[in-house]
């Protein structure tokens, strides 16, 4: 299936999902406490079968799911995404015992999951994390340190935790653990964020973990993290596209009806051209997200580059589109409770989490240059008065020796 062509069943499902989110999920979201886990909302996602679909879906399905929810209820989208982020490592790398214990509960929305990767001094540079896993002498470890900006913390029922089991080994010394919330020494507190998502800290004061808690193999937890992020990065872009589409829809409705200068705002070329730009960027981002998702589902080896491009373009586009929609609405959009006021706060975070924009550019550049065949660069001098050919290497002359 071409990445840019959804079949009628997919299109219909997306429309039904957006309507369902507005009817069933938005009322529950509105009743929740900002910045805290909304368990009735998570349970409703489970009852509607969306969480089980999330754990079984391919990347394209995940993108369609997140985009459709984001158009009408960003809180439901975020609750679903955070649940998926924390649970995917268990689904992909868990033991049969771990999967039997946690996956049915997570899919039903009865158990809330956390993905504990970021730390106060290790966010974008995930390989630099310092949560210490100290051997306990009996084949297990004790975890010491802190995680920050963690999904659903500290209220989650279990967490995928990444800790350093080998010091000085960078990414090769990281191990993933499944840590239930009732482990002694585990604490934390919620964080008050610009967009009131359920994020917080987790503190580890000698939290015990054993071989039965491993997700994957010791010192190979970075693979668990990257496998999860490569799947979810295009869908972060889908979340952004959903918000951009919601802002675009609002801008179209407002500018088509708002009286201005003897007509409506849409009659002004500056306004209609801005809306055209918003629509074009949104569609371009959507297509890039779908292309990245299809590449993941088909096992394309170019997934890291495509995922990074999709997240980069979609999140930056959403920021532009939401900001432009606010500008077209004027002061109306700045009132508390307005859709665009809500989106304006929501849209900022995706440019940072799961790899900031700058990190995505680094990934893209690294993947591009990795495919450039090595060549021998021969320095060339340019005679005085002549121009160096475009693209020729620059080689400054060696300074001549001088005597005092």
From TrEMBL:
Signal peptide: none annotated. It is an enzyme of class 1 (oxidoreductase). Residues 219-368 form the Acyl-CoA dehydrogenase/oxidase C-terminal domain. CDD domains: ACAD (cd00567). Keywords: FAD, Flavoprotein, Oxidoreductase. Its EC number is 1.-.-.-. It comes from the Bacteria. Residues 10-109 form the Acyl-CoA dehydrogenase/oxidase N-terminal domain. PROSITE patterns: ACYL_COA_DH_1 (PS00072). Its cofactor is FAD. The keyword Cell cycle does not apply. GO terms for molecular function: oxidoreductase activity. Residues 376-404 are annotated as: Disordered. Residues 114-205 form the Acyl-CoA oxidase/dehydrogenase middle domain. Belongs to the acyl-CoA dehydrogenase family. This is Acyl-CoA dehydrogenase family protein. It comes from Streptomyces litmocidini.
